[in-house]
Amino acid sequence: MAAKERWRGGDVGGARAVLEEAFLRNPDSEEIWLAAFKVEFESRELDRARMILARAREHPPASTQRVWMKSAIVEREAGDAAAEAALLEEGLTRFPTAWKLHLMAGALAERQSEVERARAAYHAGIKRCLDCVPLWIAAAALEEREGALARARALLEQARLKNPGQPALWLAAARTEARAGNAKAAEAVLARALQACPDSGAVWAESIRAAPRPARRSRSVDALKRCNDDPAVVAAVAQLFWGERKVEKARSWFDRAVTLDPDVGDHWALYLRFEAAHGTPEAAAAVLERAVAAEPRHGERWQALAKDPVNAHQPLGTLLKKLAQTIEKDMAM
């Protein structure tokens, strides 16, 4: 989009001009309204961003779930929890099955240390959106943080019954047990996960990392037989070689992982951390440049970092470096 290119080049006025012309041609386009919002929001012009979204909400064709979600995000950025809560409440009245609005309502309540309100928000969302995996996981995570492991475990069990074959739910259950120090239970959950999701690269990758060190090589062979071109498995094998100090093999497999799917920020961060430890400054810089050009949008840790309000407006390269500094500890082999 021409407006995006101008904004990236630092020409905010030019981007606005392009979008104003686009409005004249297609005033009902959600995409144009949100592009105009993004220009102002990323330029930290919160009042202008708020005004654009208010106009969009008043214009029926543009008053969409995403517009209401972005409206709440503006108020979160401004630190106005009351306005954020009001927008989420009205948004959910209009769009009761908008799972992201339910998730944001729960997260807002958690930030305000209102556990019961957060619990109610997540459960209301689950009731409306039984197939929404992130809501189930958020509800279980809340219970885990509150020390109610049995509740967390029960929620994840119920979620798997309602949504069989969802790898993320199995991973959440295994990690919940692992964090509680129940190694045997975590191992048992992962074994069941491989039966329920035999072609899930994410589950196989977790299984490789969780296996005892002597068993990781054979586990990786099994994973590659099932998911040879899955980037999660390929990245896990790269980590395996990294742990064995086989630098060139690790580099080759990391490169293969980000080539298979450049959209996964976690893998770019691992690759960057690896090159920072075992490569030259030029090699690390080259990986960072490729990662920024790829503009990754997915990855468990990447999304959590990128969507954290603390990191709003941070350049992509800065976020990648930040994740690279911590991700090795989280995903160490």
Give your account of this protein's structure.
- There is one protein chain.
- Helix content is 76%, strand content 0%.
- The protein has 333 residues and is mainly α.
- The longest helix has 15 residues, at 316-330.
- The radius of gyration is 22 Å and the shape is globular.
- The relative contact order is 0.05.
- The mean pLDDT is 93.
Core attributes:
76% helix; 20 helices; 333 residues; mainly alpha
Distance between the termini: 42 Å
* Oligomeric state of the chains present here: single chain
Give the overall average pLDDT.
93
Percent strand equals under 5%
Pick out the low-confidence regions. none
What structural class should be given to the helix and strand makeup? mainly alpha
The tally of helices reads: 20
Quantity of strands, as a count: 0
Which overall shape is indicated by the principal axes computed on the Cα atoms? globular
**Helix and strand pattern:** HHHHHHHHHHHHHHHHHHHH
Largest sheet: none
Q: What percent of residues adopt helix (DSSP H or I)? A: over 70%
What integer value in Å does the Rg equal? 22 Å
List the helices and strands and how they pair.
Blueprint: H1 2-8, H2 12-25, H3 30-42, H4 46-58, H5 65-78, H6 81-94, H7 99-111, H8 115-128, H9 133-145, H10 149-162, H11 167-179, H12 183-196, H13 201-210, H14 216-226, H15 231-243, H16 247-260, H17 265-278, H18 281-294, H19 300-306, H20 316-330
Helix pairs in contact: 1-2, 2-3, 3-4, 3-5, 4-5, 5-6, 6-7, 7-8, 7-9, 8-9, 9-10, 9-11, 10-11, 11-12, 12-13, 13-14, 13-15, 14-15, 15-16, 16-17, 17-18, 17-20, 18-20, 19-20
